[in-house]
Fold this protein.
Amino acid sequence: MADDNKPGVGAYVRDQDADAAISDLAKNRTLLVTKLTSDPALRPEVIEGLTNPEAVFDHFKPKAEMEFEDETGGEVKEELSFKNLGDFGKKGITAQSDFLNGLSQKQEGMNKALKQLKSNKILQSMLANPDAKASYVEALKSMLAELQASKPDTE
C-alpha cells in the first residue's frame, strides 16, 4: 500500500491541517517557481495585479549572468535577460547570446559539410585515396590562408 503523503513524480504533499484558503493546483496546470535574477531579495513583497507571465517578466525584469567556456578554455561572460517564456528555450537564449549564436552557426556549417560529405560520391572516393586526400587538405589550407590574409583587421 502506497503512502498517500509521500511525494512522487507529478505529486505533491498536502498537509491536511493546512489553511483551507490554499487550493490545489489544477491537474492541467504547471506551477514554476524559481529565482529569476541574481540580485538578492531584500524582503519578500506581495505584488498584486500580475495576471499573466508577461506582466511578471515586465515587473521583475529578470536577468542572469552566464559564463561560457570557449574552445581554448577561456571564459566568455554574457548577461541574458528574459522578457517572456520563449526566452528560456534554445532559440530564445541563442538569439541574445553572441557566443552561443556563433557556436550555433559553426554547428550549422559543420552539419552542412557532413551532409555534403555523405552525399558526394566523388568527394568520398577522393578522400579514400591518400594522395588525393593530402592534395585536397593542402588546397583547403591554402584557401584558408588566403581568406585569413584578405580579412580586414578588426581587433
User: Anything to note?
Assistant: The helical segments are 53-60, 90-95, 98-119, 121-128, 130-150.
